[in-house]
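Homework help board

Subject: predicted structure for assignment chain

Our instructor gave us this sequence and asked us to write out the predicted structure in token form, then describe one feature. I got the tokens but I'm not sure how to describe them. Can anyone check?
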Amino acid sequence: MKFNFNAKAEGARLMETKFIVPEPGGLITKQDIDNALAKRKRAEITDKELIEWATMLLLNDAYELDAKNEDLIADRLKDISFSHSVQLPQV
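My token output:
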């Protein structure tokens, strides 16, 4: 499998893959995002890792967003992906 990702590309973020996309793709739920944000809050992952994770999910056809919350999940991933740092929710 070939995988290229350039998060610093001006004007766009690009990812190139050369593999057959699984059907169905891996399901991404609201809980997955909440878990990732909780890991960031506990400093288990960095802002950079969280941002790259969200960007990869948006660009990689191997993942599907849960249809029950598709718009919310897409918006949250987009907000994280285009952040320079992540604003963690207050508990």
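Reply (TA_rk): Your tokens look well-formed. For the description, you could write something like this. The chain has one domain: 22-91. That's the kind of observation they're looking for.
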